[in-house]
Amino acid sequence: MSSPTEQSLSSFLDEVASERVAPAGGTAIAATGAMGAALCEMVCIHTLAARDADADTSSLPALRSDLERQRRSLLALAAQDAAVVDELFGGDGEEPSERLSKRAVGIPLAVAESCLRVLEVAERVTELGSGGVVADARIGASLAAAALQAALWMVRGNLDALSAPSFAADIADRADTIERAAADVADPFDA
């Protein structure tokens, strides 16, 4: 299985819709977050190109750079998720190791953290974006928000597979912290 960074969207979706075990939900979640980041990046690019003299766009290059980092991170996490799912469910039917169970929780947690950062940056991009493209930042933020919620759902759904209760409790606390932080980010459609 190739990663979403190495194939067309059509072939990636064909793999998701196949009889294979991976890529699956976590991979799709991370790819969705990456799409949200890419849309917000695009808004930065077009807003800078418009060079509206009345707007202070000096922070847009740094915001764009942050979004690019998050996009690349999310695509790497998508590939990692596909590899873990393939290892967990595509193998010989043995019980998964604790290492694999921790990765099955850690990867979607990292996706949620990255999507939170996309949301935080998107909030600023929607404030600074040019009128013609700002809707794309709102859509990007919406995709990142959906990916964040789905990733947290996956984290919580995988906690039962962990054998260390204190580790599971720490992960649950981190998930709750991410969810609270996301709730504090302005709704992109309230603008």
Task: Tag the structure with descriptive keywords.
single chain; 191 residues; Four Helix Bundle (Hemerythrin (Met), subunit A); mainly alpha
Q: How many domains make up the 3D coordinates?
A: 1
Helix-strand string: HHHHHH
Q: Sum up the overall morphology in one term.
A: globular
Which structural class do the helices and strands define?
mainly alpha
How many H/I helices?
6
Detailed description of the structure:
- This protein is an all-alpha fold.
- It is built from six helices and no strands.
- It starts with 8 loop residues before the first helix and ends in a 7-residue tail after the last helix.
- The model has no long low-confidence stretch (mean pLDDT 89).
Q: What's a concise summary of this model?
A:
It contains six helices and no strands. With 191 residues, it is mainly α.
How would you summarize the topology of this molecule?
Elements: H1 9-16, H2 25-50, H3 60-89, H4 98-128, H5 134-158, H6 165-184
Helix pairs in contact: 2-3, 2-4, 2-5, 3-4, 4-5, 4-6, 5-6
